[in-house]
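Example 534.
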Amino acid sequence: MTRLDSRIRPSDEAFIANAAAYETLRSRIRSAREAALLGGGREAQARQAEKGKLPPRQRLSLLLDPGTAFLEIGQIAGHDVYDHAVPSAGIVTGIGIVAGHAVAVFANDSTVKGGTYYPLTLKKHLRTQQIAREQRLPCLYLVDSGGVYLPLQEELFPDETHFGRIFRNIAEMSAMGLPQVAAVMGSCTAGGAYIPAMCDETVIVRGNGSIFLGGPQLVRAATGVIVDAETLGGADVHTRDSGVADHYATSDGDAIRILREIVARNGIGHPPSPPRTPLPPRFDPAELPGIICANPREQIPAREILARLLDDSEFVEYRARFGTSILCGTGHVGGYPVGVLINDGVLFSESAQKATNFIEICVQRQIPLLFLHNISGFMVGADYEAGGIAKHGAKMVNAAVCARVPKFSILIGGSYGAGNLAMCGRAIGPQFMAMWPNAKTSVVGGEQAATVLALIRAEQLARQGKDFPPGEEEEFKRPIRDSYERQGQALYVAARMWVDAIVDPVDTREWLALGLALASTVPVSETRFGIFRM
Ligand code: COA
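Predicted structure in complex with coenzyme A:
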């Protein structure tokens, strides 16, 4: 066992410069968060308030146990994605604690285009359902939505992972014994009506909650009959006549009280206390921004990061002298054991083999895995190809995919190409994935992409007996470089739900401890690795 030390002092010149540069990154994230928290804005909220409706975040703050942490998923989803603002993609989702039980919550925001589903609303809803399924959590749907955002129906309705997947998930999770509960607090039209109708138990709010396959406008158009929403599908009809809902609530607050009672009766599993007393690191996590080089080309010192993330800065390193461009070892976060893999340079064959062995060990000992990405990729060159770097990297990917222990992936620096995959990037299936404000990700770096494409162009021109005209090579490269730079940024990535959250370095331990607590309630299933090419 090693207690990690630190050579960096907050009075160092570089530390001060790095910390100052980090504040600029943070302030960009802060403004995006503020816009997300405001939802559809004060005017739209005032309109909802006139009807006696609370904004979704207020509904959640009444629903969740006071003082408990909320692990929000996709807070800035939708940021700057569409040609108009869609804050938080029009839905607030996450994992929280209700009556002592961990639950997944989904709260539509009717101040954002009537709470309708954009492609990213759907993606966020499905991602949170996936987390609920994996973490075996009950789901609470606070429904207040006009259904599909009709102008984008082709991206929302017909395909396998489109709107219908919400209902498939509800049915499958209900079949798994995970309570599915809805509170209808606003509109719930057409396909959306199946959310409460498919749930195990449904609450509906008098006056505001409505459930119908065809709304008043459609009934009038189809049959000529004029009927108001409450008569067509309000709380009275559905709790007395149709049986589509079970509980009649007199207000948002009353519905939330009923929801809390349902969870208290049916919630499954309390998050247990950690197996070891949590200890703070010996070096302050608030120092992390000061040790992340403002120049992304410079290496982030891996041990300095771990010294500020792990309990008591304690790290039991695995094969410290072998494959040194990746550090593997065990430690604790918030009292929960964790097997850490953190890059400390480019990946070589030896580092990939070491990481694969380490993953096998964690699987056998049922230790959750934490991948901290700071990786430009695998080493290239004839000697490395001849040494089989492709097969060694493939083993690491295989191990990351198949490991059936909980997997956490955090981008703390760059995360590129095959390095991203080997470090359990999004496509590989980590249970939770986050990104620091300074982190970046793309298939290769912008400069490399521009250079490769410029070389291909130069070869095409050479076949025609031509050269790049003077100055045009740079003109050719600049837009490629710029678009890579823009698309790799944390805000761009998180707005598209390629990660679950942007987490500040200072908040990382709390985020991880919450995820580890949740994951610790789930029985670990047996791992079978695919064939490792030796
Ligand atoms: N698709 C696209 N836009 C929609 C929409 C939908 N399904 N439903 C509502 N909107 C838009 C409105 O055009 C309006 O946009 P604007 O702010 O740019 O003018 C905004 O959402 C708010 O709608 P509004 O009707 O003013 O708000 P409200 O709170 O009074 O009512 C609804 C909200 C959802 C009850 C109501 O708009 C409605 O019934 N929508 C139709 C629902 C429907 O039939 N869905 C079927 C799809 S499955």
